[in-house]
Design brief:
Structural class: mainly alpha
Largest sheet: none
Number of helices: 7
Number of strands: 0
Strand content: under 5%
Radius of gyration: 16 Å
Distance between the termini: 26 Å
Amino acid sequence: MRAFNLIISFFLVLFLALSLKANASGTQLTTVSLDTLSDDEAAGLVFMREEEKLARDVYIYLYETWGQKTFDNIAASEQTHTDAMLELLHKYGIDDPVGDNAEGVFVDQNLQGLYDTLTATGSASLIDALLVGAAIEEIDLIDIKHLVDELDGNDDIRQAYENLIAGSENHLRAFVRVLEQQGITYTPGHLSQEEYDAIVK
């Protein structure tokens, strides 16, 4: 399936993007106390701010395309997620990569490319759109858990990431339910079957 191949490409590119961000030297940072937040942790917040925006923007686009209410509901949830990341950026004195950027516009060019690919894939059919949604939530879970593992203290950031994890698990379950209503049994594209089963069952 064309959509499946594009989603696999999405996984690979996003992992590369996250790796680059996690190892960044903090070029987007302003005044950050290195005693409380490392450059890698700060880069993680910057990345998650835009990644949550990516999810929101894709879902807004897919809702406008297909009118499937699930996209609208989850887009609203993603707005709260990206707002939570903004609060942490402000707290730690980190420049916001989003600013006044419109929907579908990203500073991170890897995320820009992903937005373009995912919206194109989701435009093919409602099933493709739902598969895109489930894939986004899978990769969000992996990215966020990776950032949690990299934290050294910073309980406020840990709690925020754990909230994002709970949200992504709920979103994944929602997309899987709607796919089942469409007669599609979803197969995880990157989470292990055991991890996926623990979430949806």
